[in-house]
Amino acid sequence: MTEQKKGPGSKLSRRAFIGRAGIGAGALAIGGAGAFARTVEAAPARSSFVSTDPQHFGRLFPGLDAFAPATQDVTKSLIALGAQGGPLDARDQLSAGPVALITDPALSLNNPDNPTHTAGTTFFGQFVDHGITFDTSSTLGSPTDPLTSPNGRTPSLDLDSVYGGGPTGTPMLYDVNHDPAKLLIDSGGLFEDLLRMADGTAIIPDPRNDEHMIIAGLQCAFILFHNRAVDDARASRATSSPDAFAVARRVTTWHYQWLVLHEFLPLIVGQHMVDHVMQHGRRFYTPGLGQAFMPVEFQGAACYRFGHSMVRPSYRANLKVTTETRSSASSSTPVRTASRRIRVTCVAASARPAASSGGRPSSTSATVR
Fold it and tell me: What is the mean pLDDT of residues 36-64?
């Protein structure tokens, strides 16, 4: 897990922890869409059931009627549904503080942690989302035709949110002066950190992967994995930088895809569903080769938005490493160990879905020993 730098680069507030839209927009504006967002290389194709192409969102069910007319009454009802104290409010006892919200399950009787999910499951799902969807043109609350909305990510699990356009297309992501096969990574002092500009903005293909420290840590983890895979590729006789990069990217991507299929999806849809699809094929999303696209029903309307409801009211992260000297009869050896000092960031929003619906609840943090 990475440690965010102090000053402009420090992102430990609630707004940063759940969705720092400001920095995201800034990163995109600094370099332009072409500088950090990978250009989709697939040739335009026509879907058999809706007119679209890989560079744009599309519809999985183009003939499906709207759930309700877009009236002011419907809007008010939806706002009331997600409001504090409304039907979706889990009524966590936030006044108890961030530490107690982790250690005392009785404070969240209506909002228990999923017993089969670690805290990181939520954010791995967010990392997956950031690798397949990026809508940079639609405005919240304004009807938009998905067929005209560009998708800034490729609709496949290819880690373009890590690799960008490769060493040639996005050289600012790579160590072009010393080892162009490797991705650049920085240090926050004690932990690995993303490469940053002077104002703290991360230099990564997708600015959303610096929205909070957990997902920034995942980005760093994949960078480190790739760089180690480069070393392994060279040990296996991939001598040129292009060859080493290609082998390392393939190995890293395969491991990522394995994690999604065998670890993440069973936690979300169940092992039975995963096995059924793998054995019998897909039923509804059936584009041909080269016709893949991101359905708006998955991206924005319903399916993958459930992840917002998985966010817990409080998280704990170890942000300090100390060096101890352990003595024996023959020697004294310095050992780096994790201290007991932790920082807890509390998302002060009673209803998890409501917290992701545009509100700006306050946040608190505490350091305990």
Answer: 58
